[in-house]
Write a structure and sequence with these properties.
3 helices; single chain; three-stranded antiparallel beta sheet; mainly alpha
């Protein structure tokens, strides 16, 4: 997102300051982002009314960035947990398939292949 004064920009307001933003994102999404920034900065300003505007903006940016980084970390941990669960389930399914398919006496018969081997064909 870029601050501009062009007619094809999106007008938003943050801390009662009108801004024009050029963004490739959907205009409604851009307004939602600006509203989130506005709420964060207002909450900080309300909690410390004598804080200088620049410090308020920096603390607001740090708070929003902290939320982002925590969410990314949680998402990565969930993705790793899901990957582990999928691998364990895959191994259990392969084990169950190997036990349930009878051996027809031909040694390396196709009926004894794992799901991965069968689906790769």
């Amino acid at each position: 997102m870029t601050l501009l004064n062009e007619p094809d920009t999106i007008k938003v307001t943050v801390l009662d300051e009108p801004l024009r933003i050029a963004s490739e994102a959907d205009p409604e999404y851009t307004r939602e982002v600006a509203a989130h920034v506005d709420r964060t900065l207002r909450a900080l300003r309300d909690s410390a009314p004598t804080m200088e505007p620049f410090k308020n903006a920096v603390l607001g940016a740090m708070e929003i960035t902290d939320d982002l980084l925590r969410d990314r970390s949680e998402r990565a941990a969930l993705a790793a947990e899901l990957t582990g669960r999928i691998e364990r389930l895959d191994a259990l399914i392969d084990g169950a398939l190997k036990q349930s398919v009878p051996d027809n006496g031909s040694g390396g018969s196709p009926s004894r292949r794992s799901r991965k081997e069968t689906s790769a064909r």
